[in-house]
Structures are given as structure tokens and as C-alpha cells.
Write a sequence for this structure.
């Protein structure tokens, strides 16, 4: 399997259409799907030949390598760069594509070929899990300019670390859940893995006092209190199917902040279905607001540590800043109805 682009003619027996105008680079996480992506590289090669005349498959070799490969694919002039894996792979690829001073038109189109544990972003992009169908959409789907989030968190050594995110940032217990998930083998699949990690975290998580200040659609605002969870959503889903951005949009220049205060263990368990229905902000003491930027810091007297996660990866802990970069990246999806916000 070569790393270089492969120009070729469509030799499929069915004689179907093959995209001859766009080149695609597949950035593959071989560990995605409990190693299934690595085991099926030959199958992936056969499938991509059916949809594209010019293509390349570039497997990652470790954490952070997807960012380097996406950056190189952009320099190499590929029209489309696809993340083959889960949300963590998407996170790395998006950071590679955003690592320049250009605009959306100067960057390759981003899309996803799902193989991962969570794969929550594909729900917002309406990309099927079937590899052949996802590649067909990569070839023929709709391309729109989507917002991208930027998060600046604090490392364990106190240094600021800036990352882009395409889907959701979680603060509080969400950070602990992701840490548990990333330590697991993920063999149970997305929903079961995240659900188990969530229930385990509910048993042990100690809420900290947090101050959040934001610039919203209707002006500035702030909140301070003990925090169970906060979600900053550009996409719609996280945590293996939790609908934390219901009714929001990746195309409106806004992020949706949801704040959940502590509850008793029984109340937390009873309200857990709200997370999957998209109504968690209706729980007692919870709220949701559309924001353009926010700052969050821990104000507990004990100075506790609150982990953050971004697209299933962990950029650091509080203090944290997040903001939206409107229309920063072209994305290709399979929307049957327009996802653009109505005037």
C-alpha cells in the first residue's frame, strides 16, 4: 500500500460513477474500533477505489500523528481529508486542517469515515456507519461551511494549551468520564462504554465550585455554583449518544452552553435519560444559553482540579477559555434536509 496518491480509472463491474474531480486522503487510526480499522486497511483500499480515482491512505502511528498527517495532506493539495476512526481521530484531523492562517476555501473539505467507539460527530453530519456508504457520501455529499470551536485549557504543569474542536467540550464530570473511557479497551462499543464510565463517575465524582462568564447572543452573562457538568456544544451529540446540543447548529456562529448542577445519586440516575433525549437543561437548577465565547475557572476553596475534554480528547483542566470560529471549515455530510439555521 503506497502513501502517494493513486490516479486510476473506475473498473467496477457495476459501471457506477466514480469521483474523478476530487482527490481524497484518508487519515486512518488503526486502533479505532478496537483495532478493526487497522485490520481492514485492505478492505478500505478496495472500497475507496470504488468512489475516487485519486486517493491515498495514511495510517497514524500514535497520538497526535493524525494532526501531522492532515497538515501534510493539506500541503499536498488534497481536495478532501477524511478522518477514519472515532471522534478523537476527527479532533486530530480538524486541528491539522485548522493549523494555518487561511480561510475555509483555502483548506481541504473535511469528512468522516466512522470506525470509532463514540463516533458522535457523524450524527450531526448524518454520515452512515457503513464504510462503503460513508465513502460514497464523501464523494457525492453536500459541502457546507461549518463553525469550529477553539479551546484554551491549562495543562497539569500550568501551561496554556490551545486546541480546536469540531463537536463538544465537556467540563467537570464529563472530563472524568472521558478519562475513564480512554483508559478502557472500548470493546463494548460506544453507548455501553460511555454509559458504564458515566455510572462509575457518578459514584465517585466530587463537584467543585466554578465561575463561568460568557459573551452570548443577547449580551454578557455569568454563573457561579457547584458544577456537575457543563457542555459547550458546536455539534449535537457526545458521550456515545448524549444529545447535549439539541436544536443547535454548526452553522450559526454560536456555541450552546449547558450547565448542570449537582444532584443526589438517585436524582442524577433519574435524570440521565434527559441527556439522551436532549432535555438535560430542563433538570432543576440547570440552564442552557447560546454563546460566542466563555471563560470558566474553579473557585472552590480547596482549589480542586476539574478536567476538560474536547471531542473525546483531553486538552487539560480549568481555567479554560472557549470561543467559536464561524464558518472556518468546509465539511461534507449526508443531510437529507438543510441543516442551516432558518432566518
Amino acid at each position: 500500500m503506497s502513501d502517494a496518491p493513486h490516479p486510476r480509472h473506475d473498473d467496477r463491474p457495476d459501471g457506477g460513477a466514480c469521483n474523478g474531480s476530487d482527490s481524497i486522503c484518508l487519515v486512518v487510526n488503526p486502533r479505532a474500533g478496537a483495532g478493526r480499522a487497522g485490520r481492514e486497511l485492505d478492505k478500505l483500499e478496495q472500497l475507496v477505489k470504488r468512489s475516487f480515482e485519486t486517493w491515498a491512505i495514511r495510517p497514524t502511528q500514535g497520538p497526535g500523528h493524525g494532526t501531522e498527517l492532515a497538515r501534510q495532506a493539506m500541503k499536498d493539495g488534497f481536495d478532501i481529508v477524511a478522518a477514519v476512526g472515532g471522534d478523537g481521530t476527527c479532533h486530530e484531523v480538524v486541528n491539522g486542517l485548522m493549523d494555518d492562517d487561511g480561510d475555509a476555501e483555502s483548506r481541504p473539505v473535511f469528512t468522516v469515515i466512522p470506525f470509532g467507539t463514540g463516533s458522535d460527530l457523524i450524527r450531526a453530519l448524518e454520515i452512515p456507519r457503513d464504510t462503503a456508504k460513508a465513502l460514497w457520501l464523501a464523494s457525492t455529499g453536500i459541502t457546507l461551511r461549518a463553525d469550529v470551536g477553539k479551546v484554551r485549557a491549562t495543562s497539569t504543569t500550568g501551561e496554556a494549551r490551545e486546541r480546536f474542536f469540531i463537536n463538544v467540550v465537556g467540563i467537570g464530570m464529563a472530563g472524568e468520564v472521558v478519562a475513564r473511557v480512554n483508559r478502557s479497551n472500548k470493546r463494548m462499543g460506544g453507548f455501553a462504554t460511555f454509559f458504564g464510565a458515566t455510572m462509575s463517575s457518578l459514584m465517585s465524582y466530587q463537584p467543585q465550585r466554578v465561575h463561568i462568564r460568557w459573551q452570548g447572543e443577547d449580551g454578557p452573562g455569568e454563573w457561579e455554583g457547584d458544577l456537575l457538568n457543563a457542555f459547550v456544544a458546536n455539534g449535537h451529540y457526545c458521550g456515545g449518544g448524549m444529545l447535549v446540543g439539541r436544536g443547535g447548529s454548526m452553522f450559526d456562529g454560536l456555541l450552546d452552553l449547558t450547565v448542570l448542577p449537582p444532584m443526589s445519586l438517585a436524582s442524577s440516575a433519574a435524570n440521565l435519560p434527559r441527556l439522551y433525549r436532549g432535555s438535560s437543561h430542563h433538570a432543576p437548577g440547570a440552564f442552557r444559553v447560546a454563546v460566542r465565547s466563555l471563560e470558566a475557572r474553579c473557585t472552590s476553596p480547596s482549589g480542586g482540579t476539574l478536567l476538560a475534554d474536547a471531542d473525546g480528547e483531553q486538552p487539560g483542566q480549568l481555567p479554560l477559555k472557549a470561543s467559536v470560529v464561524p464558518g472556518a471549515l468546509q465539511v461534507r455530510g449526508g443531510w437529507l434536509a438543510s441543516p442551516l439555521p432558518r432566518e
